[in-house]
Amino acid sequence: MMAKNKEPRPPSYAVSVVGLSGTEKDKGNCGVGKSCLCNRFVRSKADEYYPEHTSVLSTIDFGGRVVNNDHFLYWGDITQNGEDGIECRIHVIEQTEFIDDQTFLPHRSTNLQPYIKRAAASKLQSAEKLMYICTDQLGLEQDFEQKQMPEGKLSIDGFLLCIDVSQGCNRKFDDQLKFVNNLYVQLSKSKKPIIIAATKCDECVDHYLREVQAFASNKKNLVVVETSARFNVNVETCFTALVQMMDKTRGKPKIIPYLDAYKTQRQLVVTATDKFEKLVQTVRDYHATWKTVSNKLKNHPDYEEYINLEGTKKAKNTFSKHIEQLKQEHIRKRKEEYINALPRALNTLLSNLDEIEPLSWSEALKVMEKRPDFQSCFVVLEKTPWDETDHIDKVNDRRIPFDLLTTLEAEKVYQNHVQHLISEKRRVEMKERFKKTLEKIQFISPGQPWEEVLCFVMEDEAFKYITDADSKEVYGRHQREIVEKAKEEFQEMLFEHSELFYDLDLNATPSTDKMSEIHAVLSEEPRYKALQKLAPDRESLLLKHIGFVYHPTKETCLSGQNCMDIKVEELLANSLLQLDHGRSNLYHDSANIDKINLFILGKDGLAQELANEIRTQSTDDEYALDGKIYELDLRPVDAKSPYLLTQLWTSAFKPHGCFCVFNSIESLNFIGECIAKIRAEASQIRRDKYMASLSFTLILANQRDSVSKNLPILRHQGQQLANKLQCPFVDVPAGTYPRKFNETQIKQALRGVLEAVKHNFDVVSPVPTIKDLSEADLRIVMCAMCGDPFSVDLILSPFLDSHSCSAAQAGQNNSLMLDKIIGEKRRRIQITILSYHSSIGVRKDELVHGYILVYSAKRKASMGMLRAFLSEVQDTIPVQLVAVTDSQADFFENVAIKELMTEGEHIATEITAKFTALYSLSQYHRQTEVFTLFFSDVLEKKNMIESSYMSDSTRESTHTSEDVFPRSPRGGSLDYNYPDSEDDAEGPPPYSPIGDDVRLLPAPSDRSKYRLDLEGNEYPIHSTPVNCHDHERNHKVPPPIKPKPLVPRTNVKKLDPNLLKTIEAGIGKNPRKQPCRLPAAPAEDTDQSDNYAEPIDTIYKHKGFADDIYAVPDDSQNRPIKVRNSIVINTQGEEENGFSDRVAKGHGERRPSKYKYKSKTLFSKAKSYYRRTHSDASDDEAFTTSKTKRKGRHRGSEEDPLLSPVETWKGGIDNPAITSDQELDDKKMKKKPHKVKEDKKPKKKTKTFNPPIRRNWDSNYFGMPLQDLVTPEKPIPLFVEKCVQFIEDTGLCTEGLYRVSGNKTDQDNIQKQFDQDHNISLESMGVTVNAVAGALKAFFADLPDPLVPYSLHQELLETSKIMDKAERLHELKEIVKKFHPVNYDVFRYIITHLNRVSQQYKTNFMTADNLSICFWPTLMRPDFENREFLSTTKIHQSVIETFIQQCQFFFYNGEIVEAPNPVACQPPPSNAVQMVEPMVPLQLPPPLQPQLIQSQLPADPLGII
């Protein structure tokens, strides 16, 4: 039963391999191949195949267990699967005859029969006989596999008869065949199957094989198999055929002829070889070893197959060949690298042609060895040649082996090097000759194409010698030189014609007529014509110059780093610092203070950090400051401490000053509250007479983390608080510092404390009159032209070389103080040194007692700028003109210098001004005495100047034709990004071109006349009823940049967003705010049909007021006064303050004139420009007419053409002061009554709102209907596509995208260039992302009809009121489908773009909410003149916001976005009084919806005002 369950054993067969055997005499000197045939069949792997098997054995080997005294070998067994899948085991026996190595006779064995009889035996027996493997096994059986013949006996089932068909070795084939015939006879007697194996067919003799086949054919069922054991051909086939004869159940194998079988086998080997070679080629390091690689590849099938077929030895040889190839390839590449690097080494060491031209290569080698740079280019190896050393492996050593230079290749490189130097020398000479030839050709103009010049130089010898590329390169260099020179001359020409540009209004766009006038004047200039072929570049330079006139800052200065403001700041910073170290300050000699008690106030550990920093810079609590040692006693206190007031002032500790440190809006808010408490405590308790005068110093801590982007805001807020407190503000110095506090900050704060102590204790100082360092008796502005050919040190030396010179107050980087005795007293004179472009903002906005106007006598442009500036200076302000040149001899030797100096002296004579000259080679004129007479003159006229200044400010604040809307001071907006208007028609808002650093505030001695407003700015005050102040706030319109931090009032109407442009126009006019100022009626000559909102919307309105009535402040009895388009002044107020009476009479008094009306030279120069396009009157007539016309009339732009507001949408202006057309003035006068009458009866407008045209050029693209700009193939306008593509490729993450204004000039330039060439690349123009964004918005603003049709506005507004979100969105989706197909495609495109922008809100801070605020007026373009619109502005904005947020839903069948943008949905702060961190002005949305942001701003958080 158990036997049945066992698996059947495979059948087993024993095959006896027989053939010719015996002594060498019988078989020859080699066998017939029986052993090789058995070896290949039993162990077919190449590594297990042994081609040599000997039959000559010693007696010991013959008696060993392998041979076992038998004349047969047991080769072992092999399990074989047939083609039919039947498995069998084959035992292989080889019948042979072993020869004694001593007698060379067969060994004697137990079977003494001859070989023929013995080979035919079917029963074999040999106890413990071991399997034979190879000859080496004999005697070393223990080192090989030991396998016994099963049971010591075998029964033979078939015979394999081997016949050698090769040439044989000393053996006749006939004798072999005869032996085989006898053997076959004996074998056949056993009745066992027989197969003939024709061996060694790879060396086959054809007729031998034919004889064997003939022999077999004569026998019954005798098959011949052609085999080759060496190549493993048909070996397995012959054994398989024999097994089939033994087992008839098996399929008969196919006997394949040798050649066919050989081809099959060789193909198998070739395939395996190819695969193995590819495998080996993956090795790229010639240092690899066979052992390492074989271990990595041993499990790879391709590797195993090749090893089985060809063996390890061949595989190793193949690998070795590959490694050698890699090495040789590496050496070849290194040699190629060295040869290629040799020319560079020769250029370094042997670059002098004159030196090496006569030298041979061997001589040149000796010269190179002596060069100092030899070791850096070459390496001398100890062993040679270099390719047999380890240097080939030093891939990082690029030095050339010196022994390589002895090769022919290196010598050839040297010869080529010499020839190259010769040809290069000749080529350079010819290029220079050709360059000189071009310079001699006068008609070559800037921008002239090479093709136009080619025909004139074709016969030139140098041109013929050099290549076309060289000639074009030389011509291009020549063109760059003449173009650069022409552009510089063109720019200089523009400055020479400064009067032509400086009547342009600040931040306005010049009108078409004005641009035509500019071109008409400049076209007469040869320097203008020189750029005729570069008209776009010329236009760009002109627009850039005009842009500089609009935005005259040191950052936009056309002189770059040669800007006078930059140079002055650098010089003063160094010179005044040396002065401070070179001599002791005032308080050093005047105040005997050795110990300073400091109270340090801060929040969240900031106070302690500052105290630690001060102690770090101290030695044993002693601090060195300006050459003196002070003992410091520091008391840091946290602002949150409940014991703040008790710790501040004790009997043992009386502070000399208090440092207040902050690093955030929140900490600044705490500081403000603490200071308010301290001051309130001081005023109530009066603990000490000095406590009330305790000095505070605000210190801004350096930002070292991500909040550093708020640094401009913190700086601005800190400066405002410092202004309110009248205390110093210590800013973070420029540069990068690892700590929160810098040594410069600490020293600056300590100096402020010492100055305050000196002032408070009235310590007698060396100066006769004691004044605060910020006070000044006179304020003088010195103006100089940027880029003038003299050093700043020259014009400042009269001041810096004086012993009475000192630094101005902190923050005024371009000012200095002079202490001079003028008359009988010592006076403090503040000198502010500015460029002319920076002085323009000071000329109108600030109180200046005198001007020192410097110009270079070597430069016409310098005189031109002086004339343009001086023309607009009021004639009450004294002026000194200063001409600068090298020496007095220049006046007599140089005609141009003589003319400019004469002109300057002539102008000074005409206006009764001082004139002097500074000579760089003279020391006398560098003394302060040069300006002594001028200072005396200024001092005499000081009262008149200040009275005129105050009168002018008063007149501006009350005149009916100016500045209806008050504004913040110019400098107050510098640190904020100005939001875009609805169409970006205007550039950034007007601002002080010199910033807060040089703002000239009234002296403390004059501050009794001024009051601080909520931003810390000063304005004149007069006696006013007590209750007037509250209503005064109601009449202040928030400035366009940052709303005023007013306490919210329920009855105050918010700022109409469309007043922005009106405010922009008026913002450049009046820098001060007047208390209780009366709102003026609209200007008589203002067209009310323009896009301006009614001023009534911005003024506090009592109940019962009619819409057409302007509200004004209450009178002294708290009674509101009503006026209709006119000013009604309370008579009691007139009696009380004496101010309104002056205002009422303002039309009759004579105002100060300007110097251009006193100087015929100045007036005639300005008039000459105007006359070229407007008038034929003579200079004398115009000069006289203008003087008579000025009396008794106020001209809107006569004050300052650069700063006077105009209707910005109507283009630029021309200076009316120059106009001599009396009829034009009369017409304007006649219009006034008519306009007032119309205002009394306003009519409801029914016409469609038409936007103003912002372009000042004709365009066949911009302003055209949308349908004319698209096609069915291209449904999006090309300009829109280009802009969107540019923005998304380069600036999608730009902070404030679409909110921050781009440069207006660049926006216009983009559209102009596109007008000329629709294929223009925005990337090649080098414009900013903000400029492209502005141009894109301007495109939509210029469309005749808005992108969102007017006809659907009402539906959109009504749908937006639906409460259910899903229903509202589906309704909006249906309305969008009603768009015209063209509008729909473009609207979908732009909304999709805005959606992509909003997705980057974390970096660009532009959420869907912010984008909608910026874009909805452009896309919907509502009628701003309709008052009903004011109540729906938020709905308009929310519609566009919804489209942006739900873009995928509306246009791409996406899902509704449930979660709104987290940034866009921040709730307003609950406490309107507390300053919070999110209140960052840089991130505020544009003021189209001031009610959205007004609640976020604190209302006087410090409670100080």
Structural class category: alpha/beta
Q: Which outline best applies?
A: elongated
Largest sheet: 7 strands, mixed
Average pLDDT works out at 75
The level of helicity is 40-55%
N-to-C CA distance: 118 Å
What is the C-alpha radius of gyration, as a whole number of Å? 53 Å
DSSP summary, beta strand count: 29
% residues in beta strands: 5-15%
Count of helices? 56
Query: Order of strands across the widest beta sheet?
Result: 20-21-22-19-23-24-25
Low-confidence blocks of residues: 581-591, 762-774, 959-1149, 1175-1249, 1461-1505
Model description:
With 1505 residues, the protein is of the alpha/beta class. The strands form eight sheets. Strands 20-21-22-19-23-24-25 form a seven-stranded mixed beta sheet, sandwiched between helices. A six-stranded mixed beta sheet has the order 3-4-1-8-9-10, sandwiched between helices. Helix 16 (408-440) crosses helix 19 and helix 46 (1304-1316) crosses helix 48 (1329-1341). The protein is elongated and about 160 Å long.
Structure, briefly:
This protein has 1505 residues and is α/β, with parallel strands linked by helices.
